[in-house]
Amino acid sequence: MLLTPRFRARPESPSAMSRSRPRSWVSRRRKGAALFASAVSVCLLAAAAPAGPLGVGDRLYPYLGNPGYDVAAYDLSFTYSGTNDKPLRAVTTIDAWTTARLDRLNLDFAHGTVQSVEVDGRPAVFTSAGEDLVVTPERPLAEGSWTRITVRHTSDPVPAEDQDGGWVRTSDGLAMANQADAAHLVFPCNDHPSDKAMFTFRITAPNDYTVVANGLPAGADRVGRTTTWTYRTQHPMATELAQVSIGRSTVLHREGPHGLPVRDVVPSGDREALEPWLARTPDQIAWLESKVGRFPFETYGVLMAQASTGFELETQTLSLFEEYLFTEPAYPTWYVESIMVHELSHQWFGDSVSPRTWSDVWLNEGHATWYEELYAEEKADRPMADRMKAAYTASDRWREAGGPPARPKPPAPGQKIGIFRPNVYDGAALVLYALRQEIGRPAFERLERIWVREHRDSTAGTADFVRLASAVSGRDLSGFFKAWLYGEKTPPMPGHPDWKPTEPVQRTVRARPAGSRTTPR
Q1: Percent residues over pLDDT 70 in the chain
Q2: Is the pLDDT of residue 515 over 80?
Q3: 72 and 214, same domain (yes or no)
Q4: Crossing angle of helices 441-454/281-292, nearest 10°?
Q5: Is 514 within the bounds of a domain?
Q6: Which residues are within 8 A (CB) of 31 and not within 5 positions of it... i.e. 6 or more apart?
Q7: How far is CA 3 from the centre of its chain?
Q8: Any domain includes 491
Q9: CA 297, CA 291: separation in Å to the nearest integer?
Q10: Which residues form the Peptidase M1 membrane alanine aminopeptidase domain (predicted)?
Q11: Confidence class of residue 14 from pLDDT cuts 50, 70 and 90?
């Protein structure tokens, strides 16, 4: 974020699910789910206890996610009337493995009306508790069983008070911005990046609208005055990365490296003006592939929305951008391109390799900022060292205000997206710069490639990065990372003894609420 043979949509059995996914991904998911379920088993409530909100124990978002099951696939159906201030009719179907015996289960859902819930085809009792939908099936679910939950509900695009994110109302329709904790404002889910799943989208809209979602198209069926568009992902995805665009849009197609299909979604009236920007994407993908390896997904593209969000967002395979970024003449070309590269970088760092907890978000934003800066250095002669020195100067102030990079302070009440502070952007990129200074460029570049390859389509945390960096460099780096990631004060920069972390006269990088952009320098 800045202030990114097909799997069957509804697998009928565990054996069908196993055939549809890479074996390594299935084994990693089952192992991770078992460990995670064990860690949070104390949170499970007995059947006689009152229904209440649960969570997977995330330090920053304690009530996000739910214990006791591991989602394998979502099938999301939305019906859009043509008016973006009215609730959409929706059906969410969840296929999951249970990781514990469940007399009832919780889903994250907080902004819509639930009409009915079924578990394995049988009606289930449901109630609300906090931002959870608590479901009691007709029969308890055995540990290790395959289950399907179907929720018929509405999805409200008008935000409630103190609820940020979810649907974004554009000038001609809707888009999504679910990071960090807002997917459950759109559909019932296990809303935590540790539980990635496959997605199918079925969106019905009037015929004069175009619909695009994550993944590849799987049909557009026109019936009378409406068309139902279907999209499917070919790789697992975190709920925060879901994207649906509904608007009077044009889809532009081009080819990326190795025949990668690239599709961009733009307001139809602006396609000619925006085309020069979009034409840059294939070369940007090729540049990043030269740094970290093959693009990790089945497609990519840019969604340019006529909306005022204050940020760009790396929704998987279809990054969300404000159209204003590309039409405002005050933004220099190098700056706009570096922001495009920031969101593109997230397809590797944050989307393919997702954070295990939200405290690991520095791995997302630090790497995206790193490649944003490296691109500006190599393509526009904007020295990375200059920006790093400026960040170093401000680093102690950032740590005091927002916490160190790997232990950000919890968001303030009513500002749940407040973890997106400078300490996890430029502050985290500064950690990577210090690491490159410490272990040398060849080892650092090797580390980056191995990281995205070993954790592709999975989740990983700070401890994983520390272990891999130590292995690649051939020495124990735990002390180095402890100081740089968790220290209240910024350690000395290797190779730059003259750099001093002092309070600057004027802020060099402004705070980025919800990933907002920095001012061009």
Answers
A1: 86
A2: no
A3: yes
A4: 110
A5: no
A6: none
A7: 14
A8: no
A9: 16
A10: 333-484
A11: very low
Question: Is the separation of the CB atoms in 405 and 366 below 8 Å?
Answer: yes
CA angle (105, 109, 112) in 5-degree steps: 130
Tell me the residue type at 143. Answer: E
The three-point CA angle 113-41-357 to 5° equals: 70
Number of domains in the chain: 3
| Residues 287 and 413 reside in one and the same domain | no
CA angle 235, 238, 240 (to 5 degrees): 135
- Alpha-helix residue ranges (DSSP H) falling in 403-477: 426-439, 441-454, 462-473
Instruction: Look at residues 231, 235, 234, 232 and name the one whose alpha carbon lies nearest to residue 220.
Output: 231
Are residues 157 and 219 part of one domain? yes
Helices 441-454 & 462-473, crossing angle to 10 degrees? 130
Residues 6+ apart with CB under 8 A from 95: 10, 11, 17, 71, 72, 73, 74, 75, 146, 147, 148
Where helices occur in 280-332 by DSSP H, the ranges are 281-292, 324-327
Measured CA to CA, the distance from residue 110 to residue 178 in angstroms comes to 13
d(CA 174, CA 205): 11
d(CA 115, CA 134) in angstroms, rounded, equals: 14
Summarised one tens digit per residue, pLDDT across range 273-283 is: 999 999 999 99
The residue written with tokens 């081009």 in the block is 254
User: What is the distance of C-alpha 193 from the center of its chain?
Assistant: 7
Residue 513 exposed, middle or buried by CB count within 10 Å (0-12, 13-18, 19+): middle
Do 401 and 413 belong together in one domain? Answer: yes
Distance CA(396)–CA(187), nearest Å, equals: 40
Give the C-alpha separation, 37 to 507, whole Å.
44
Is 365 in contact with 392 (CB distance < 8 Å)? no
Q: Which domain holds residue 335?
A: 248-340
| Gap between the Cα atoms of 372 and 375, Å rounded | 5
Q: So what's the pLDDT on residue 416?
A: 61
pLDDT band at residue 415 using 50, 70 and 90 as cut-offs: low
Q: From the centroid of its chain, how far is CA 169?
A: 19
- Residue range 465-479: mean pLDDT, rounded: 98
d(CA 78, CA 234): 20
Q: 393 with 504: CB under 8 angstroms?
A: yes
Which residue is listed with tokens 């078992």? 34
Quote the mean pLDDT of the chain.
88
The DSSP secondary-structure symbol of 140 reads P
Q: Using an 8 Å Cβ cutoff, are 420 and 1 in contact?
A: yes
Tokens representing 254? Answer: 């081009």
Q: List the beta strands (DSSP E) in 248-365.
A: 249-255, 261-267, 302-305, 319-322, 353-355
Residue 314 DSSP symbol? -
Give pTM, 2 decimals: 0.88
